[in-house]
Amino acid sequence: MKENTNSKRESFKFRQLKYGGYATLITIAVIAALILLNLIAGQFPMQLDFTLTKLFSLSEQTLQVLDSIKAPVKFYGLWRPGEEDKSLVDVINLYVAKSKNISLEVIDPDRNPGFLLRYDKENTGIPRGSLIVEGEKAFMVIAPYEMYDVYQNQSGGSSVTGIAMERRITGALIFTGTGDTPAVYEITGHAELPLSALGFKDIIERENFSLRTLNLLLTTVPSDASALILNSPSRDLTDEEAEKILDYLSKGGRFMVLADYNIRELFNLNEVLASYGLRFEYGIVHETDPYYVAIDPRTEWPDMADHEITRPLADKTRTPVVLLEAMPLSLLETKRQSVEVTPLMTSSSVAFLRADLDNNTVSALPSDIPGPLILGAAVADPSWVQENEAQARLVAIGAGSFLPLAAQGFDANRDFFMNSLTWLQDRPETISVRSKSLLLLPMRVNMVQVFVFGALFIFVFPMFFFVSGFVIWLKRRHL
Predict the structure, then answer these.
(1) Is the CB of residue 353 less than 8 Å from the CB of residue 329?
(2) How far lies 149's CA from each of 132, 195, 432, in Å?
(3) Cβ distance 207 to 107 under 8 Å?
(4) Which of 195, 193, 174, 158 is nearest to 417 (CA)?
(5) How far apart (Å, rounded) are the C-alpha atoms in residues 4 and 45?
(6) What is the Cα gyration radius of the chain?
(7) Which residues lie below 8 Å from residue 460, measured CB to CB, with a gap of 6+?
(8) pTM > 0.90: yes or no
(9) What does the pLDDT look like over 408-435, one tens digit per residue?
(10) What are the DSSP calls for 84-96, one per residue?
(11) Peptide bond before 372: cis, by omega within 30 degrees of 0?
(12) What pLDDT, in 10s, does the model give residues 283-342?
């Protein structure tokens, strides 16, 4: 009996040792496989960007710019050891990984003051943390504060609303490859809202444009004018000014106008637009569809058409374009066949235009013009360009408050404006390279979605749980 017990004990120990050995071998094999897999994966640097707005991914337009770079481009990061902006370095590494002609070198500005002198042309100093992009034909210095979009509130505080690293770096690559700075002229003399007062002078110049002012009563359109901008005038153009703009456009000029009901008399401005199939209609658009109402019936979230200007704004994670007290545009039946007019922004079909601004009735009147209404449009003439043929381009927006809202933190308004300006310049490679918003937006739902979600959460789901519980109760009751 005792021998039988001892044999069982020995057998149990043998089996325990055997299974324990197998378990140990399997554990060692798994660990070795994981180490080997990790070493192999390390040879193929791959990252997945799960951020909502793809903060650490390059846009398709940037990749196209990188493919076109044939000459060496040097990035100089002016950082003291340990003070690098990790997010910026991660973005720069994406550029370095995608192009063999781009390299990064970190320079300690405190130890290399002489290095900075060759890039400080105006002797104003280069702030620590800046990035210098030097190409074949030019260089550009990007200050650290230019890497982010910052909103200044009325109380004097500020907050970061977006990351502009890709926009700034890709713009610098384009500039350093061409050395070209197109001149944009802001038309003055009609009590306009100055772009500089809205903070757009810096924004425009960061996009490699030069912003200047132009009074058409005193001079003609300069020969180097790549585009004209008329922003929220309070008075109409004179006959002489309208003729000068039309002459400029007839030679392939580019023109952007933002106007609203405050101008009242639009005869000469509409004469300019009429030559290209457009005109402003006096009044204010009232929106009645809750899906399109931003704040009140006079504040609109418009529908966006599919166009080079609007396509980058279709991303649902972005802040939407907002129009305050918009004035619509109408398409003229009589226009040249070569002209192509594309509506960019439209209201809902239940919106209406009210020209009698003294009437505060909420519902539509018989005299009101029903929607849908065009709130912004782009014009190209001729619609198809062959070889070196000149093409006139126009962008008209029926909201004088468009850029003031952008200055208050509505980034989509700013991006729409800059997309329009780059489209006027025929620079498609920079249209989609915009800042990546950090704002979290509420869900926009139309009336159909309201009813569907309401039915699901108020009726369908509660009834499902009630019926399930009732069936379970009946089964248990009869056990």
Answers:
(1) no
(2) 19, 17, 16
(3) no
(4) 195
(5) 62
(6) 31
(7) none
(8) no
(9) 878 888 889 989 998 998 876 555 555 5
(10) --HHHHHHHHHHH
(11) yes
(12) 999 999 888 888 888 898 899 998 988 887 776 555 788 999 999 999 998 878 889 999
